[in-house]
Amino acid sequence: MSLAALLLFFSIALAARSQGQEIRRLYATRPPAGYAFIRIAALSEGPPPRVQVNSADLQINEATGASSYRAVPANEPLNLSVNGAAISKDVVPDAEAYLTLVISRTNSTWNVQSIDEGQSSSDGLKAKLRFLNLVPGCTATLKIADGPTIFQQAPFGSVQSRTINPVTAKLEGSCDEGNAPLTLPQLRAGDYYSIFLRKDSERLRLTGQLDETEPYRER
């Protein structure tokens, strides 16, 4: 096979793969109107705790400390439990809202803090970054390593977002004198990517994951 034919083959294969991914995203099972989307971010060290939302397990990624989004009925108190103990019925998400629920432990008691990300919007030509500062007492900054600042003056328990061109980059999150690195993967147009800044054992940690929503099903 000639070089030109080989390049044409790979370009067609990549295009078909990309189109297939977009079709799966476009036609993924969605909930009816009147639902919100929540995910969990854990601040505890060690293996992720068992989290249940409305009596159904929600898996936390051990590497990132966060779950995918799950569709839940809006305008109803959320039943959230950690390791079998109910921790809150005060979270009542609005319709179409996206929430990150940050769970942390004080001695043997689990607590939850809600971060309202607003409603989702997308730019089909760009990717979108979300930066969540999960370090108590810290005003955080996220920048390109040896480059410009992306987010600054981010207080604890907040989210900041912006669209970017889908490129790879080495990032650096910082609080006070500490900093933590993260290599941003190659994103595609329309992707959402969340970056979490935490502090574990006196060390800052920066993790990231593609934002995904579980396919909707009746629970």
UniProtKB/TrEMBL annotation:
Protein name according to UniProt: Alginate biosynthesis protein AlgF
Signal peptide bounds: 1-15
Recorded metabolic or biological pathway in which this protein acts: Glycan biosynthesis; alginate biosynthesis
Keywords: Alginate biosynthesis, Periplasm, Signal
Localization, UniProt: Periplasm
Family that this chain belongs to: Belongs to the AlgF family.
A Pfam short name: AlgF
Keyword Signal appears in the UniProt entry: yes
Main location group: periplasm
